[in-house]
Amino acid sequence: MKTPPRAHPLWLAFILHRLSGLALALFLPLHFWTLSRAITAPDSLDSFFALTELPMVKLAEFGLVFLLAVHLFGGLRLLALEFLPWSNSQKTLAAAAVGVAVLVSGSFFLNAI
């Protein structure tokens, strides 16, 4: 029996890669605005950095690193799809990419707290 396309694990990997890219694209303006504070208003940047010690912000940083890692490994998976011959182990590689992303972001989070 054939798996419906939207229930296929590689379709889910595709959606995760797309959503992580979208979230990172939405984050970039905030990041650039924060960096601009270093030039335009250094005092407000210092008060903003004080906020980064809050547990919720550290959790958000974990999410950001997770999104970066998922997007990186999802991109590597797409490159593999383009340049390597198809194999049934690609579902395993997609799951491993998410696992490595969790490991990378988790180690960042543990280092941050």
Automatic annotation (TrEMBL):
Family annotation (InterPro entries): SdhC_prok, SQR/QFR_C/D, Succ_DH_cytb556, SuccDH_FuR_B_TM-su
PANTHER family per record: SUCCINATE DEHYDROGENASE 2 MEMBRANE SUBUNIT SDHC (PTHR41910), SUCCINATE DEHYDROGENASE HYDROPHOBIC MEMBRANE ANCHOR SUBUNIT (PTHR41910:SF1)
Chain segments annotated as transmembrane: 62-80, 92-110
Organism encoding this protein: Roseovarius pacificus
GO biological process, alphabetically ordered: tricarboxylic acid cycle
Keyword Transmembrane helix: yes
Name of the protein described by the UniProt record: Succinate dehydrogenase cytochrome b556 subunit
Binding of heme, residues: 71
Family assignment from sequence similarity: Belongs to the cytochrome b560 family.
Subunit architecture: Part of an enzyme complex containing four subunits: a flavoprotein, an iron-sulfur protein, plus two membrane-anchoring proteins, SdhC and SdhD. The complex can form homotrimers.
